[in-house]
Automatic annotation (TrEMBL):
GO terms for cellular component: endomembrane system. It is found in: Endomembrane system. This is Isoprenylcysteine carboxylmethyltransferase family protein. The chain crosses the membrane at residues 34-52, 72-91, 120-152. Its main location: membrane. It is a multi-pass membrane protein. It comes from the Bacteria.
Amino acid sequence: MKGTVALVMLIGWAVFWVGWLLAATQVKRGQTRWPGYAGVRLLLALVIIVSLRGARHSVTAATLTGPAPKAIGLTLWAVGLALAVWARVYIGRNWGTPMSHKEDPELVTSGPYRFVRHPIYSGIILAMLGTAVALTLYWLVAAVVLGAYFIYSAKAEERYMTEIFPEAYPAYKRKSKMLIPFVF
């Protein structure tokens, strides 16, 4: 079962990231992209490589056994990717940074954005945690590093959003948490 779960997750991650990169190419030409955009891809690739390398050497020592962790992990992974995709589709043309280069930017606070301010990041982190539970706990390294990077990126994005929406964004921040509903 572990091999099947790993294959499903590997294919799912590949489809997710290829789709993500294709969506990124749809951003209008001439629009400045967020300076950390290339860094996210590089960081993710490095974290995955390191995680897989470590997992290859000692998978059994850091693996939760039995069907329950596989089912729970696969569920967390699927919910996380679904949340990230839903948030990306929901935000539509407002996706991408900096927002200041978009025509008529809109502050989206409904849909998945009513629960947290950065549901795309939340979804990816949840999917990484699900991967760790289902496959090997070494994926926690990827989730922690990516989570730290997403917090850094979210704070930078929020500075932009506050400049663009000086009244609405601070009000939105008071109503919703950054990444985890009701917590953080």
